[in-house]
Here is the input.
Amino acid sequence: MHIVVCIKQVPDSAQIRVHPVTNTIMRQGVPAIVNPYDLFALEEALRLKDAYGGRVTVLTMGPPMAETALRKAISYGADDAVLVTDRAFAGSDTLATSCALASAITQIHKDMPVDLVFTGKQTIDGDTAQVGPGIAKRLNMQLLTYVSKVRSVDLEKHEIMVERRSEGGVQLLKTSTPSLITVLEGTNEMRFATMANMFRASRYPVKVWNREQAGIEDIASVGLKGSPTVVSKVFAPTPRAVKAEIIQCESNDPKDLSVTLLAKVFAKNPKLENEIAKRAA
Amino acid sequence: MSEAPEAKKPAGKKRIELDDRLKAYKGVWVFIEHERGKIHPVSLELLGEGRKLADSLGVELAGVVMGVPNDTTRSFCFEAFFHGADLCYLMEDPLLTDYRNEPFTKGLTDLVNKYQPEILLLGATTLGRDLAGSVATTLKTGLTADCTELNVDLDARSLLATRPTFGGSLLCTIQTLNYRPQMATVRPRVMPMPERDARRDGRIIEDKLGMVESSIITKVLEFIPDAMQDKPQLPFADIIVSGGRGMKKPENFKLIWDLAQVLGAEVGATRPVVQAGWVDLERQVGQSGKTVRPKLYIAAGISGAIQHRVGMDAADVIIAINNDPNAPIFDFAHYGIVGNAMTILPALTEAFKAHLATARKAG
Amino acid sequence: MAEKFDVIVVGAGPSGNSAALRLAEAGLSVLQIERGESPGSKNVQGAILYSDALEKLIPDFRDDAPLERHVIEQRMWVLDDDSFVGSHYRSDSFNKPPYNRYTMIRSQFDKWFSERVQKAGALLICETTVTNLLLDGERVIGVMTDRQGGEIYADAVILADGVNSLLAKKAGFHPELQPKDVALAVKEIHFMPQEVIEQRFNVTGEEGVVIEMVGKITKGMMGTGFLYTNRESITIGVGCMLSDFKKQKITPYQLLEQMKAHPSIQPMLAGGEMKEYTAHLIPEGGFNAVPDLYGDGWMIVGDAGMFVNAVHREGSNLAMTTGMHAADTLIELKSEGKAFTAENLKRYKARLDESFVMKDLKKYKNMPDVFHTNPQFFNDYPDLISQAARTMLTVDGVDKKTKEREIRKSFRHRRSLFGLMGDAFKLWRAFE
Here is the structure.
C-alpha cells in the first residue's frame, strides 16, 4: 500500500502579531510549524502502514525552508519526502496549488502506484479546506472529507470504508481506491518519534523537484496565472473605537466588583436584564 | 489564500469590460443545504446576504435545492422564497438521498453550466466545504472560503469577498476577476438571519440529475446519529460563558459551568483549552471553531487573541475577566474586570443569583 | 545497531554550538542533541554579543550573523525610588569597526550559529532530551535519550545543557543548584520604531546603547536591571538572586513591573509594545560554585559549569570560550592518538586557567558573598548617592559647603563611620 500525505509548513499563527505602527504582519521570529491538522492525516497514514504494510510518502509545495516540515514527517516514520518548489508557484491560490500537487502525485504514482492520498482538514494560515478537494478532482479520485476513522482497507478489491463526520452524526461510507481523504482533527494522537527515525530524518535526502520535475508543463496553470482568485486588498480590522470599561472599586473585593458590574451592565442594557431573567426563571 | 498575499490591484478604477463569455453569467445563487428534513440555517443567512448582492447587481436571487423527490424537499424551495429568493432550481432524485460528493458535485456543476450564475454562495459547513471545493475545481473557477463580508464592485461587476488571513490578524479582500461563477463560502452565524416573509412567492425550475447509482462509486452504508445528549448549540445561544487558558486548570472550569447554569447559558472555550481536552470540540469558539452572536458573552481567562476574537466579537455585550490589564480582550470588550477569574467568577455567579432572586420577587 | 560518534554535545546553545563547530571543522564525527524545538528555543539572554569570543570561532561572523546594534555607549545608573545618578561612557572608538559589542536577539543568533555548525558537518537532532549518561564503571561512554531506542555511544560527551543541567546533577558531577548560586532574571522585548529609538537614545544608523541599572529597583535584593537597544525594539529586564526572591516573596514579574514604572524608566518605554516576555536562571555563584569540569569521557562547558562573570554581566562569551577550549582539548588528544581519560582531559582545565575565563572568575570570587551579606550596597547607598546628588544639584540658596557637610552627615548617619570604612574595605577586597 502506498499512501501520499500532503502537508504544509505554516507560520505558527498563534504567535503572529501585527506591527503596532506599520500595520504589517510580523512573520520574522514566528516559528514555522507543520500545519497541525496535517499531523492527524500523517498519523492516520502511519497507522494504516503499521496495519497493512507499505510506504508513506510526504509531499509539500513550498519555499526551500519547507524541507524542515518534511523532515519532521520523516522523524515520525514517513518513508520518503518530496518538496516541490519553484518560483513559478509564487502567488498560487488553492486552485493553482491543487494543480501543482496533483501533478506531483501523478509523478510519484509513476514510480510507485498511489493507493490513497491523505490531507489535513485545512491549514491554519489559509483555513479554506479547498486544496484536498481540488487535488481529488484533478486526479479523478473519490473525495472523502472530514473522515474521523478509517474502518478498513481492502487492497485486493480496491475498497476503503470510512466514517465521515456530518451534521448530527457520522456517515459510514464505502468507496474505491485510489481516493483522497481529508482527516478530521482529534482522530488520533501523534506518536512519539523513535531515536532511529530522528536520525533518519536528520540524514534523509529530501527529493526536491522544480516545476518540470513535478510534471507541470503548463506554467499558466500554477502561480499567479493559475489562480482565479486575486487578493485585491490586505488591511487591518478597524480597531474598536472604545475600549472596555474597567470596573473598579475601593475595596477591590470580587463581590463589590461583581455588583458594580451588574449595575452598570443592566443600566445600559435593560433588554439584557429581561433576557437573563427570562432564561433563568 | 495559501501563499503570502501580494496585493495585486485590478487595473485602476476604470470600468472593466467583462469579456462576452463572462457577461453571459447573471444571477446570485445560494445552495440550500439540508440534512434529514431540516434546512441548515446558514443557507437562510446566505439568502439574506444574497438578496443584497442581487439587488446591487440588479439581478435575481435563486436558491438551489437538491434532494430526494418528496414534499419536504419541495418545501425547502418555499422557505427559500420566504427568505428572499426570486426563484429556485430544484433537482430531485433518489440518488440524492444522503449527501455524497459525486452526485451532488455533478448535479450542481450541471446546473451552473446550464443556467450560468455569476455568484454562487454556500455555507461553510462540512457539506458545503466538501461540495464547494469539488465544484470550484471542476469549473476551474475561484472560491473564497469563510468570508466575513460580501460586497460588490459595480464597476468591475465583481464580488468582493473579505476574509481573515494570517490567523485572523489581518483581513483580505479577494476577487475572482476572470472566471465565473464567483464562489464563496460563509460560516454559520457570520451573516444575520433575514426576516421570514411567508407571503413571498417565486418560481421553481426543475432539472434532472442524469446519473445512475451504478456509476456512483461511493456508497453510504449507514448513518450513525450522535448520541442524543445535551449537544451544545453554541452558534444559536443567546448567552455564553466562555473560558480560556487563564482558568489555569481543568478543575477550575467548573466555575464557568456554575455561572452558565445560573444564567441558563451555553459554555464556550478557546482552542487551546479544547485541544487540552478540558471541554468538547463542539464548544470551541473562534476562527477554527464556531462563530457566535449572543446577546451576552462573558470571557474569563481569555486573552482575546485574534483567532478567538473573530468568533465572538459580534456579540451585543462582552464582559471580560482577566488578570492581565494589557490583555487584548480589553480592547474590544464592553466591560472588564481585571482580576483573578477564580475569585471573580464565583462572586459574579452569586451576584447574578441575588439579582435574579430579587427580580423574580419583584416581577 | 546503535549509533556511535566521536563526540556527543548535549545542548545547542552558545557553548554547545562553539564546541560542535570546532570539532566538526576538525573532522571529528559530532552529534548535537537539543531538547528544544530548535537551537535557542530554550535559551534566554539579555543579549549582548562579545565579538572577541566569537571571532575566535567564526572570524567572518559579521558578514551574515543577525546582529542588532553595535554598542557605542554604556550607561551605569544607580536608582533610588524616583531618581537616578548615572554615568555614561560613549566613545568614538567604540564606533569604529570592527565593533566590540553588539546587542542581539538570542533566538535568531542561535539559529544562525546552528546553521554554521550543521554546515560544518555536525549532525543535529532537536526535540530530544538526554536523560542520562551511559556509564561503564566510572567512564562515560554515551548518552540515553527520552526516545525509544535512545542509546547513543561516543568517546566523549560534552555537557552544554545550561544552568539547570539535570544531567550533571544526575551523574553526580555537581551538587544540587543552590538558590544563593543562581539569579532569576526576567525580561521583555518591546517593539519600538527605529526613529523613536534613534531620537530617544541619541544614536543613528546601527549604533546602540546599553544601560545597566542597580539600586532600589531591586527592592533591597541583590541584583541588577538592564535596558538594551535593538534595531526596532528595546529589551528591558531585571534579575535578582533566587534566594532573595524566596525571602522577599515578590515575584520577578512584579519586580519588573515596578521597575518599568520608575519615573526615570517609564519614559524610555513610551510608545513601545511588548512583544515577548521570558525568564531564565543565571548562574551567579562564580568561582566558588564551579563544579568538577571533566572526568573519564566527559567535560562541562557554558552555564552548566557556572561560567558566568556576574560583575561584568558576561556569560555568553565565557560559554563560547569554554566550548572552544573543550573542543580544542579533544582535537589535540585525538591527533596525538590519546584517549579521553580524566588524566588527559586535565588539559581542558589548564587551558581555562590560562584564559580570561578562570582568571576573571577567580578575581571576583568573593563578590557574590560580599554583596549577599551586605544589602546596604543595594539599599542604603543608592538612597544616599541619590540624596547627595539631589542636594548638590538643587539650587536653593544653601551654600555649597553646608550642602557637603549635610551629605557627609547623611552618609555617616546611615552607615556610621565604621560602616563606611568597612564598606570601602569590602569593596576593595572584592574587586582585588
The first strand of chain A starts at residue 2 and ends at 6. The helical segments of chain A are 36-52, 67-76, 94-111, 131-138, 195-203, 254-268, 270-280. Chain A has a mean pLDDT of 87.
